[in-house]
């Protein structure tokens, strides 16, 4: 009997709310209240900078008019720091509505300048876009980290094969076949990440794919490249939550392909 596999919930995403007026922070929290958001308060620019010393943020909602360090100065300091320069900033203000303020906001590196009053759904929609982008970026970084590990593991066998047979990378020598193999691997991933898989013969698909790779004298590095290219393509097509399932499924599939691939080079 097939059992549905439970996916671990996505970790909460940190969003920094910066405003010197508690009532404005309370209003933002009410609009953005969601189980997958962790809303962090800061009542000044200096407090916001301190928050970013030990926390990662997907997005910053920043008031313009604040005593002491205003929103523009805060944004400039955020963009000067390597750790925080890529965090999107949305200015939210009810006062600084003149064009010169709007231009200055964008000049500091903000991605948007939202004027009050605004419809809550508009803010929720804007925030959701940047949260989704943040999660996809995290997934791609995870793929890159795993790729570097796999490349280190596959490098000795790949180098040996290149010396013995003088073979270029499959992606360079036969990009058409490489793309076909990536599509086949993607189909196996589609089946592997589903909750119910009893009716699908995944091992036979992998045997066929492994046979194709062996026939082409593909090395471990080629397997890794097929794996990475496929996951990157999936990352552009699916939600971050769905991408998590593909990454998990890929960990099992690539091991199944690498084992016979490595064995073939030493027999």
Distance between the termini: 39 Å
| Low-pLDDT regions | 1-7, 153-165, 195-200, 262-267
Global shape: elongated
What percentage of the residues does DSSP assign to strands (E)? 5-15%
Mean pLDDT: 77
Strand arrangement across the biggest beta sheet: 2-1-3-4-5
Main traits of this protein?
five-stranded parallel beta sheet, disordered C terminus, single chain, 267 residues, alpha/beta, disordered N terminus, 10 helices, 9% strand
Textual characterization of the structure:
- The protein is of the alpha/beta class and about 270 residues long.
- The protein contains ten helices and five strands; from the N terminus they run βαβαβαβαβαααααα.
- A five-stranded parallel sheet has the order 2-1-3-4-5, with helices on both faces.
- The longest helix is centred in the middle third of the chain and has 46 residues, at about 120-165.
């Amino acid at each position: 009997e097939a059992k549905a596999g439970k996916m671990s919930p996505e970790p909460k995403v940190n969003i920094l709310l910066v405003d010197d007026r508690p009532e404005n922070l309370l209003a933002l929290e009410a609009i953005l209240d969601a189980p997958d958001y962790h809303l962090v308060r800061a009542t000044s620019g200096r407090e916001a900078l301190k928050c970013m010393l030990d926390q990662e943020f997907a997005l910053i909602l920043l008031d313009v008019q604040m005593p002491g360090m205003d929103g523009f100065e805060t944004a400039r300091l955020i963009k000067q720091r390597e750790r925080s320069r890529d965090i999107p900033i949305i200015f939210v203000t009810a006062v600084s509505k003149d064009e010169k303020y709007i231009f200055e906001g964008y000049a500091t590196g903000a991605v948007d300048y939202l004027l009050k009053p605004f419809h809550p759904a508009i803010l929720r929609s804007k925030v959701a876009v940047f949260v989704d982008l943040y999660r996809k970026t995290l997934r791609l970084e995870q793929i890159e980290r795993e790729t570097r590990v796999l490349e280190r593991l596959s490098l000795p066998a790949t180098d040996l094969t290149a010396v013995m047979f003088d073979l270029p990378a499959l992606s360079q020598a036969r990009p058409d076949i490489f793309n076909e193999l990536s599509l086949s691997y993607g189909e196996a991933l589609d089946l592997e990440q589903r909750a119910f898989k009893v009716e699908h013969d995944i091992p036979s698909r992998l045997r066929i794919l492994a046979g194709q790779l062996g026939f082409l004298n593909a090395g471990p590095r080629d397997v890794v490249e097929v794996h990475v290219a496929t996951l990157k393509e999936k990352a552009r097509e699916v939600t971050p939550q769905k991408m998590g399932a593909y990454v998990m499924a890929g960990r099992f599939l690539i091991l199944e392909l690498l084992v016979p691939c490595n064995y073939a080079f030493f027999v």
